Write a sequence for this structure.
């Protein structure tokens, strides 16, 4: 689903806050400012080549960045290589990486990416975001979580820890008479107790 927001309207905690608007004119101005300060305008782009859609997405991202004056150095690697290169080596400027947020684990999913201590950290730090994440962790009801997620989206729009390119719907279907399925926080289905009742 096309979106630049961290949550879509399918989330229980979506509050009509949209992500940053596409603004190539402003992006070009910012790139020109950085170039006038000495930046060469090049980015090292790491993306997985063993995903069915990654090559197409990488081409689209490169086209969008070229449009605003950024040159891309490609580094297509396997997912395993990417995990090592991004997580351990920090050998990249930008990468193609899923955000993967679930209503049941919003704080955990965000905290591990956009705080300095998280194992999947983006290298991003913002005191307002840290405070909002603390509020999200402390939230005891859905209404409070929705309100805090709205604040997090506003901070995200101002500070842009990453660019959201879209959302993927995950659906799980099963037939009548199948029981014993167990679901994890992230829609993984455990079948070890699955059985037919008819």
């Amino acid at each position: 689903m096309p979106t630049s927001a961290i949550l879509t309207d399918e989330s229980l905690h979506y509050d009509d806050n949209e992500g940053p608007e596409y603004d190539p004119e402003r992006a070009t101005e910012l790139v020109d400012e950085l170039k006038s300060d000495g930046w060469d305008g090049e980015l090292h782009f790491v993306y997985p080549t063993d995903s069915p859609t990654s090559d197409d997405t990488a081409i689209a991202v490169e086209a969008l960045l070229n449009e605003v004056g950024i040159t891309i150095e490609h580094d297509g690697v396997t997912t395993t290589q990417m995990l090592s290169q991004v997580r351990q080596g920090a050998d990249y400027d930008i990468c193609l990486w899923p955000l993967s947020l679930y209503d049941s684990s919003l704080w955990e999913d965000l905290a591990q990416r956009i705080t300095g201590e998280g194992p999947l950290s983006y290298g991003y730090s913002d005191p307002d975001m840290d405070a909002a994440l603390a509020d999200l962790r402390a939230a005891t009801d859905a209404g409070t979580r929705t309100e805090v997620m709205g604040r997090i989206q506003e901070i995200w729009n101002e500070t842009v820890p990453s660019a959201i390119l879209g959302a993927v719907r995950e659906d799980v279907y099963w037939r009548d008479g199948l029981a014993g399925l167990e679901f994890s926080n992230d829609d993984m289905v455990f079948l070890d107790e699955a059985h037919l009742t008819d």
The first strand starts at residue 42 and ends at 48. The chain has six helices and seven strands. Residues 25 and 84 are 35 Å apart (CA to CA).
